[in-house]
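Below is how a single chain appears once it has passed through the pipeline. First comes the sequence as given, then the structure the pipeline wrote out for it. We keep one example in the README because the format questions we get most often are answered faster by looking than by reading.
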Amino acid sequence: MSKMMNAVQCEKFGGPEELKFTRAQIPTPGPGQVLIKNAYAGLNFKDTLTRTGAYHAGNPELPFIPGIEASGRVVALGDGVTEVKVGQWVAYMTATLSSKKNDCYAEYTTADIKCVVGVPDDVDDASACCAMVQGLTAHYLTHDSYPVSKGKTPKTT
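Resulting structure:
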């Protein structure tokens, strides 16, 4: 494996024009982490806010590689990881939503194993990716914010 990868990097806060293609070092997984070769990366509201420098939980230091959710194949395991295997298809978030860790707009990303799930064979790769943050958001909105049920519609004002 080459030690360099392709990535999209945010060099300064602002609009999408601040995203630049670059070459970056392939990260090495630390203890409790996996290295994933990405196939899909999601685009979330947090990514947009972080790119502009307006994320309420804080922004990463510049320059940074954006992206908080992706799917791909595990290519390396950090010390202590037994939950997944090299070659396994997974979907993941890089860390919690309050974290400043991003890095999914790259060929390879490390992620904490607690933020990684195996993908069943009957779930397509793109759906697995967007089920992480976007799927959890949809679940939260339809179960906690406004529980959806047959015949029930929100009241309009």
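Strands lie at 4-10, 19-25, 33-41, 69-77, 89-93, 108-112, 116-118.

See the next section for the split statistics.
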